[in-house]
Design brief:
The model has no long low-confidence stretch (mean pLDDT 93). The radius of gyration is 19 Å and the shape is globular. The strands form 2 sheets. The protein has a 7-stranded mixed β-sheet, sandwiched between helices. It has a two-stranded antiparallel ribbon with strand order 3-4. The chain has one domain: 3-Layer(aba) Sandwich (Rossmann fold), CATH 3.40.50.300. By secondary structure, it is of the alpha/beta class. Helix content is 39%, strand content 14%. Strand 5 and strand 6 form a beta hairpin. Helix 1 packs across helix 10 and helix 4 packs parallel to helix 6. The structure holds adenosine-5'-triphosphate and magnesium ion.
């Protein structure tokens, strides 16, 4: 049985190590699908750091370590909302039976359900087993709804650097998975934990609805002998070597600088076609598109 009746594809980017390119990959694949393939995209920010949300919305900072979404454009302060809605919606809203209403981004055809740092951290904190199970199942239930399936074709979930309940919720909802991995020895040692998480999730799936691992993607590669050596031994690993993507994402200054406000471009796709960072992003996106949609959108 397929994961979703309407054929919705849900793509989760996970890796417990921080700063390996999860958020960058999430935005690139979302923008590619919306801009080049005219696929209706929903980004879901499941990381309390809210880095993905900050790229598309003017996130507010009520205190020094948490961001929250702005008041939604559709909110009318004069209206008397039955559900007591106060105008903000985030990916955490689904855990509090609150209004779940994605925001527009500047990219036509791409919406975002932003994070809310404080409430996502609360949802992630230690809970009784029953409550934790509810959290892990919640996004899957929400996306199984006809509404979601009629509105979107492709959902991208960005997750935080851990294997806690929000990452598990992303895996539960996903049809496809990508694991960016910076080729350092220490990171490859923890990779098997992530692979175990993927395999465990599949023990719970019905035949036909398995979670597919699109690949383990070497990222932020610097072309050093050390990085090359680690990538070579990854590819030769008898356990997961054939899961490593045939391409790598190299460290590119232009990508690192895009996060800075003085940057001339905000998207890798605004760079000239000849730019290596854009070429690499397109290679990654086409690979994911093939894995997720096969011939469907071509
Ligand atoms: N190919 C690249 N070349 C250079 N810098 C990159 C590249 N990809 C991402 N970066 C930069 O590296 C940093 C970490 O990337 P990113 O935020 O995507 O990682 P992450 O895995 O989402 O991190 P976290 O685990 O903290 O959420 C960011 O400043 C980003 O701009
Ligand atoms: Mg991130």
């Amino acid at each position: 049985m397929a994961r979703y009746r309407g054929g919705l594809k849900v793509f989760a980017v996970v890796q417990q190590k921080g700063g390996v390119g999860k958020t960058t990959t999430s935005r690139n694949i979302g923008e590619y699908m919306a801009r080049y393939r005219k696929v209706r995209v929903l980004l879901v920010d499941f990381d309390p750091q809210c880095n993905l949300s900050m790229r598309y919305l003017k996130m507010e900072k009520p205190n020094s370590n948490a961001r929250m979404p702005p008041v939604h454009d559709d909110f009318d302060p004069a209206a008397d909302y039955e559900n007591g809605w106060t105008g903000r919606s985030s990916s955490a809203s689904m855990f509090y039976d609150d209004v779940v209403l994605p925001y527009d981004t500047e990219i036509p055809g791409m919406d975002i359900l932003p994070g809310d740092g404080k409430r996502l951290r609360e949802a992630e904190m230690d809970k009784p087993a029953e409550l934790e199970r509810k959290i892990i199942n919640r996004l899957y239930e929400l996306l199984s709804d006809d509404d979601a399936q009629e509105t979107y074709d492709f959902v991208v979930i960005d997750t935080g650097p851990n294997r806690l309940s929000l990452t598990q919720a992303a895996l539960r909802a996903a049809t496809h998975l990508l694991m960016p991995l910076q080729p350092e020895k220490m990171n490859t040692e923890t990779l098997s934990d992530m692979i175990d998480l993927w395999r465990e999730e599949n023990t719970l799936r019905d035949p036909g609805g398995e979670l597919k691992l699109v690949g383990i993607m070497p990222s932020l590669c610097r072309g050093t002998a050390l990085h090359k050596g680690v990538i070579r031994s990854l590819r030769q690993d008898p356990g997961f070597g054939d899961l490593v993507t045939p391409f790598v994402i190299n460290y590119r200054t232009v990508v690192a600088e895009a996060d800075h406000e003085s940057s001339k471009h905000s998207s890798v796709f605004d760079l000239p076609d000849s730019d290596p960072a854009k070429k690499e992003a397109l290679t990654m996106c086409r690979f994911v598109e093939d894995a997720v949609f096969g011939d469907v959108t071509r």
